[in-house]
Write a structure and sequence with these properties.
The chain is of the alpha+beta class and about 80 residues long. It is built from three helices and two strands; from the N terminus they run ββααα. Pfam families: DUF982 (PF06169).
């Protein structure tokens, strides 16, 4: 499911995340010891959005909050 792009910087690369699938792909490679609570919350909301018990907007918001806490949100002009 698509949502408005979230730009992140990870391992020296700028990455555009624009769907729940891409957010899951990113979380699957995220080092488990860093910000686990926010990563878990993002995963839960992604699961809910895919199951239809939550919204894509909620999933995007949780993923965005995880990116902000992890300090990987990119400043794109």
């Amino acid at each position: 499911m698509e949502f408005e792009i979230i730009w992140i910087v990870f391992e020296g690369r700028t990455i555009a995340v624009s769907s729940t699938d891409e957010a899951w792909s990113f979380l699957s490679v995220w080092p488990g010891g860093l910000y686990p609570e926010m990563a878990h919350r993002a995963g839960v909301t992604l699961t809910r959005a895919e199951a239809g018990t939550g919204t894509v907007a909620e999933a995007r918001k949780a993923f965005l909050e995880f990116c902000m806490d992890a300090g990987i949100l990119a400043a794109i002009d």
